[in-house]
Amino acid sequence: MAMSRFVLVIAVAGCSQRATPPQIHNPVIDRDFADPAVLKARDGLYFAYASHALEPGYNRNIQVLSSSDLSHWKELPDALPTMPTWASHQQDTWAPHVIESGATYFMYYNTRSDASAGECLAVATSKSPAGPFVDSGAPLRCGDGYVNIDAMAFDDPQTGKRLLYWGSNHVPLMVQELAPDRVHFAAGSQPTQLVRPGGPRPYEKLFEAPWVIFREGYYYLFYSGDVCCEPNAHYAVMVARSRSATGPFETLADATGAPSSVVVEQNAEWLAPGHNAVLDDGAGNVWIVYAAIDRKQNVKAGNGFSRRPMLIERLTFERGWPRVQR
Q1: Model pTM?
Q2: What is the CATH number of the domain that holds 66?
Q3: Which of 126, 143, 186, 272 holds its CA 20 to 30 A away from the CA of 230?
């Protein structure tokens, strides 16, 4: 992903004149801002959320910034200032995703339980997209290792069902229906497997970080693999699609015969891009937001991992599949 400048065109009813475009330069957030998710709130402001910072000076459980133009970002207080009682001795909080429902904002994230060595899916609520968010009081699901991470909530526009996607490690990505209160799974529901790792193509050893959008009759499932952050980082964003929000999904490679299902991959400037969000700005532009390692500033941010700034690129769709517009 080369350093890029983007033009955001805002359509004005009855007028062909373009509004003054903001200038977006990558990285848009030049510090450790891993696992980013971006929400456009009802008032038009954008809110970017990220995992616990590994960089000194940004000691927040969940990072959050706001912007009016996707370019200039304002630092906000910790979105999750108090850890839940069931994880009161933990400090690692990962992969937040926020969705609005009525007057409430729901933040899905993961951390470890004090009673378990494995990761747990969790949910917290707030009346403001900026927080503070308060945990629901109990995890949604806990398990061994890194299976239960990277939650993404999605309301299916065709069925009205509230769905939660998640998954990592060497198991398939999952989806399960949420209850109307959004803090429990629907009674009687079971997780459904979506895309299975372990294939022969690049980046298929491990899958994580699912993100779903609905566009022109297809559900597009974006996901990442293999290794995001260690010294041997090898990471990229891939895509699959389906006519149903719960699958079955067909990968880009399987559908087209391409050598891989990659949408965003490393280049000379950026290493290990991934864990993305996809955002429609309401002005005719679709953006992919992700974190990557700057090869020229490969600074260790903590725990031996590299700092991962946040980047934004524009997505277009050609022959029914997304591609990055440079």
Answers
A1: 0.91
A2: 2.115.10.20
A3: 143
Domain count, the chain: 1
Tell me if residue 255 falls in helix, strand or coil.
helix
Task: Give kind and range of the element (H or E) at residue 137.
Answer: none
Picking from 201, 237, 204, the residue whose alpha carbon sits closest to that of residue 221 is 237
By residue range, what is the domain housing residue 317? 27-325
Over its length of 326 residues, how does the chain's per-residue pLDDT go in tens digits? Answer: 333 333 333 233 333 333 433 577 899 999 999 999 999 999 999 999 999 987 777 889 999 999 999 999 999 999 999 999 999 998 889 999 999 999 999 999 999 999 888 999 999 999 999 999 999 999 999 998 999 999 999 999 999 999 999 998 889 999 999 999 999 999 999 999 999 999 999 999 999 999 999 999 999 999 999 989 877 889 999 999 999 999 999 999 999 999 999 999 999 999 999 999 999 998 889 999 999 999 887 666 555 567 899 999 999 999 999 999 76
Taking the mean position of all CA atoms in its chain, how far away is CA 92?
17
CB 307 within 8 A of CB 300: yes
CA distance 224 to 236: 6
Length of the chain: 326
Query: Could you give the CA distance from residue 194 to residue 187 in angstroms, rounded to a whole number?
Result: 21
Token reading at 124: 């917290």
DSSP calls for 110-135: EEE-TT-SSEEEEEEEESSTT---EE
In degrees, to the nearest 5, what angle opens at C-alpha 78 toward C-alphas 75 and 84?
165
Provide the CB-side half-sphere exposure for 137 (13 A, CA). 2
